[in-house]
Structure formats: structure tokens, C-alpha cells
Specification:
This protein is α/β, with parallel strands linked by helices. Helices cover 41% and strands 14% of the residues. The strands form four sheets. It has a six-stranded parallel beta sheet with strand order 2-1-3-4-5-6, with helices on both faces. Strands 8-7-9-11-13 form a five-stranded parallel beta sheet. It has a two-stranded parallel ribbon with strand order 10-12.
Length: 444
């Protein structure tokens, strides 16, 4: 099977992870553009190069495409870019022509522009450093009450609203393409959601027009990659705290239970209500009262008791904390013997949606593999344990700035434990792909 995959940007979770996951089945050939063509924190994607790559692809069975990458130059440029709608329509028409000529199933996603509730402009326009929280409040109240007052300068509010309107018009164009049958699946992503906001309002309008919206962002291309594998696995969710599965995760607008259901369905799988009838068990280490966040020093009640390995194929979504593992759960997990036969993956990557989408993708590829590559499955697990647990939940908290030497030294303590649990010798190196502490790249 040939699958073309156009990532959001060049981060390892967007670029390297899909390559490793696709490599779990030697019968899958993944076509992905050169990494240097994709955008990063400060540089937009080389869209001309990407259009050439897409146009010159050999015959494909499926194309997974992050539309923001081609039209805006990336997810971050979609919020920062100054192009007019007329300028963007030139790219849109070019893209439509290419996709119509490909005769492949197209799985696409586009973001609904997020509204961050902070004064932090690393991924936003410059004025977010001073007015970010106030713009969030303005958006929240405008959606909730139909009107809002703010002391943010009128020219900034006007610029913000114009950017939103431009992106919303682009998304409505994708809806027309969907009605014309251009897409096998088209998803509009809701990133960093709250109960109210102009992003929530836009999502409802898109839904009213027939659009399919989904909470999350970075994991959605992986969920679509799962969907391209046309087999409906039955997945049975089990929650560590079943009485709290109705709680809403940080940066999301749906309950943990509904996030689980939504990610299973988007991956082209079915929710099973009977463990004995299921192909895979999805164990969810969910939170009590509220989700913790290690970096923001928001604590929550850790996992307690024992974790017993299920007697049939299983995977583990560790979502008790945002952006990092629950150390107490990992400790309980590591008391068990993990065998390759029934273990289908662990993840604690960033948000609940990020964790679930990436986890299910890797598990589905392993389960459906016609020519299983154990080495690549192990690479995926080494990456998740070293990143989500060792780095995000532990080492990151010891660092003040990106320092490869210090990082490498601190990670040495955790590597033997990962080797032991996976029964696999590992040789790794580390880097900071965006020169910040938020993400680390693990080279295996």
C-alpha cells in the first residue's frame, strides 16, 4: 500500500513519528516530503517545493494532507500570516487541481484558528505578548453573551478578527470541496478549546454546514493515517477512574470519555462494549477532579494501587497529566513483564487527544501489519517512554534552558529502565529541534 503523508511541520511528533509508525508494517510505503521543505517555529514551509512534491508523486492509495501546511506554510503561519484571501485562493485552486488528478483517497484536515489564554507570543502574532489574555476574554464573552467590551486597541482587535474571518472563509471553501467529493475524510480541528470562544462558534457553524470537527490538532494526521488502513478494529476502553471519565481535560472541550470515543472513531475503529468481543483493550489512566500539568506545577492525585497486565492485546493512554507521564503509574507498570505479543503501545504525549490519536495509530498499524517490523514498533515505544516519561515528567523539570550535554547526562539514568521494560538494547542521541524545552527529539 502506498500512502503519501504531508505533515503539519518538521517537529519529530509530526515528521518522525509517522515514519516510524508506517514502518511497523513493511508492506506500507510512506511517501513524505524532505524535512527541510517543512516549516518550524520561525520559518514557514517552502510551499512551492511541497506543491512540486505533491504533483510529482507516483500513484498513491491514500494521501494524508495537512492543508494549513500548503495554504499558509504551516499551523503557526496560519495564525501569523498576512496573505489576503485572494492570494490564498490562488494556492487553493492549484491544490484542488492537483488532488483531482491524483485519483487517490484524500484524508485532509484544517485547523480552526485557536485562541490561547496567555500572554505568550512564541506561536502567535507579536501583540499576543501584551494582549493575549484580553483577546481570549473578548472572544469568550463575545461568543457567550453576543457582545463584549475590551480595552485592547481597536486596530489590534480588527487585525485579529480579520485573520479569523480569512481563515474561516478558507475552511468554508474546503466544505464545498467536501460536498464535491474531493475528500474521503475532511476534519476541522479544534486546538486549545474552552467552553466559549469564536473558535467554538466557528466550529458550530462548520458543523451546521456539514463539517466534521474534532478536538485536537497535532495528532489528527496520525488519526487519518490510521483511518487509511481500512480495517475496523473493535476497541474496548477501560478507565482507571471510571467515575471521573466525564471530566474535561485541559485544552479540550469534551469529556475524557468522549475524547476516547471520538479518537477511536476517527481512526476508523469501533468502540466495543464487551471486553471478550474486542480486538484491543485501551487502558486509560485518567484523572480525579482535574488533570495535572507538570510544567505549570498543577498537581493532581497520582495513580495508586497496582496495574495488572490484561490477558489480551492492550494499549495504554496515560492522560492523568498534560504533557507528561504519571510517574506513579509508570512505576506500577514497570513492575510487570511486558511481552511483545500483547503489548500494543504506551503514550502520554501532551494533551489527551494527542496521546489517544498517536497511540491508536501505532496500535492499529501493529495489529493490521501484513509484514510486522518489530524493530520499528520498539523504536516507537522507546521514543514514547523516553520522551513522555523520562524527559517531560522528570528531566525537563531539572533544566533551565536547552543544553544537550546536560540533557544527555540526565537521561542516562532512565535509559536502562526503558531497556529493561522493553527487553531491548537501545542506543539514543538527543536534540532540541526547535531550540526550546517544550519538545525533544530522540534519535535511535
Amino acid at each position: 500500500m502506498n500512502i503519501a503523508f504531508l505533515p503539519i511541520d518538521n517537529r519529530p511528533v509530526c515528521y518522525t513519528m509517522p515514519k516510524i509508525i508506517a514502518g511497523i508494517d513493511n508492506d506500507i510505503e510512506l511517501f513524505i516530503p524532505d524535512r527541510e521543505f517543512l516549516g518550524d517555529l520561525n520559518n514557514i514551509a517552502k510551499t512551492d517545493k511541497l506543491f512540486d512534491w505533491l504533483e510529482n508523486l507516483p500513484n498513491q492509495d491514500a494521501i494524508i494532507i495537512s492543508l494549513d501546511t500548503l495554504i499558509y506554510g504551516g499551523l503557526i503561519p496560519s495564525r501569523r500570516g498576512k496573505e489576503t484571501l485572494s492570494e490564498l485562493k490562488i494556492r487553493l485552486e492549484k491544490l484542488k487541481k492537483i488532488l483531482k488528478n491524483k485519483h487517490a483517497k484524500v484524508y485532509a484536515f484544517s485547523s480552526i484558528m485557536r485562541i490561547s489564554n496567555n500572554n505568550y507570543n512564541e506561536e502567535e502574532k507579536e501583540y499576543w505578548a501584551q494582549y493575549g489574555k484580553k483577546i481570549f476574554e473578548y472572544s469568550y464573552n463575545l461568543d457567550k453573551n453576543g457582545e463584549a467590551q475590551t480595552d485592547v486597541p481597536s486596530e489590534i482587535i480588527e487585525d485579529y478578527l480579520n485573520t479569523r474571518k480569512r481563515n474561516f472563509e478558507v475552511n468554508k471553501i474546503y466544505l464545498e470541496w467536501q460536498k464535491e467529493g474531493l475528500f474521503e475524510t475532511m476534519v476541522f480541528s479544534k486546538d486549545d478549546c474552552a467552553q466559549f470562544g469564536l473558535n467554538v462558534k466557528e466550529a458550530k457553524e462548520l458543523e451546521a454546514f456539514g463539517g466534521y470537527t474534532k478536538t485536537g490538532a497535532d495528532e489528527i494526521p496520525l488519526s487519518l493515517l490510521s483511518r487509511a488502513i481500512n480495517k475496523k478494529l473493535k476497541i474496548y476502553p477501560v478507565f482507571s477512574e471510571p467515575e471521573y471519565k466525564n471530566l474535561i481535560s485541559n485544552y479540550e472541550d469534551v469529556s475524557v470519555e468522549n475524547s476516547v470515543k471520538g479518537q477511536i472513531e476517527l481512526a476508523g475503529c469501533e468502540i466495543s462494549t464487551n471486553e471478550n468481543d474486542a480486538d484491543l483493550i485501551l487502558y486509560v489512566n485518567n484523572f480525579i477532579d482535574h488533570q495535572g500539568e507538570i510544567v505549570m506545577k498543577t498537581d493532581t492525585k497520582n495513580f495508586y494501587g497496582e496495574f495488572k497486565i490484561p490477558q489480551k492485546p492492550y494499549m495504554i493512554a496515560d492522560v492523568r497529566f498534560v504533557n507528561g507521564a504519571d510517574n506513579a503509574f509508570v512505576k506500577a507498570l514497570f513492575k510487570n513483564n511486558i511481552d511483545d505479543k500483547n503489548f500494543y503501545g504506551y503514550s502520554a504525549w501532551n494533551t489527551t487527544a494527542n496521546t489517544l490519536g498517536s497511540l491508536i495509530c501505532g496500535a492499529k498499524f501493529k495489529y493490521c501489519a501484513k509484514n510486522y517490523n518489530k524493530e520499528n514498533f520498539n523504536k516507537l515505544q522507546v521514543t514514547r517512554f523516553l520522551d513522555d516519561w523520562a524527559y517531560q515528567a522528570n528531566v525537563r523539570q531539572m533544566l533551565l534552558k536547552p543544553d544537550i550535554n546536560e540533557l544527555t547526562l540526565l537521561m542516562k539514568e532512565f535509559e536502562p529502565m526503558v531497556e529493561n521494560i522493553l527487553n531491548s538494547k537501545i542506543d539514543v542521541k538527543y536534540s532540541y529541534p526547535w531550540n526550546r524545552l517544550f519538545e525533544v527529539e530522540i534519535w535511535i
